[in-house]
FusB/FusC family EF-G-binding protein
Amino acid sequence: MPQIIKPHDFNYIKEQTYHLINAYQSVNDPRTIATFEGLIEEKINRRLKEKYEKVDLFLEQVMTPSMTKTRADSYLSQLQTEVLPLEQPSDKQIQKCFRKVKKLKIPDISKWELTRYSYLSWTDSGSQKKYMMAPINQQFVGLYGHFEPSIKKGICAVCQHEANVSLFLTTTKAGADGSYTKKGNYICVDSDQCNYQLTSLKGITEFFARYQGK
Ligand SMILES: [Zn+2]
């Protein structure tokens, strides 16, 4: 079986690594440290479901009490080269996701660093509409809407981390009578940041399911 680290798995490894460094900086007892190291390793292995040589090597590199965030970041960027990028949708796939949008402006996704993205999002500068696309069950699905102007600190429904969030509203078809309802969720205002801190696909999958009325 090919070894695959997806962008959100990489973010998870990064998050766990930072927890580890925090422990190194705040705990002195070697036995507590050893227990914590074991726990982190177990969590990462459980997430990846199998042994990864490159991940084992990474853990070996960072698991030392003198580890700093700067050094860990350089090991993390080496590990990032192993990440399987998000599939790049073709223009046709993008159009298919937003069939009802007239004059859809398609961004140049070839320039995006797709090893860092679990979903795609961009804002149309004219209409201020925000577009979101994600592969759900191996197929790209899309939705669009707009943000309410006020921004606050809160938990994002997509990445499930604390961030600057705003109410994202989209109009969605509901029921057989063809009536429309507005649905809203607080999500990260900065989608790049959202992708960089997304450690699980649960939020994004549920988010899209809600909008598709499933
Ligand atoms: Zn987010």
Observations:
- The first strand starts at residue 120 and ends at 123.
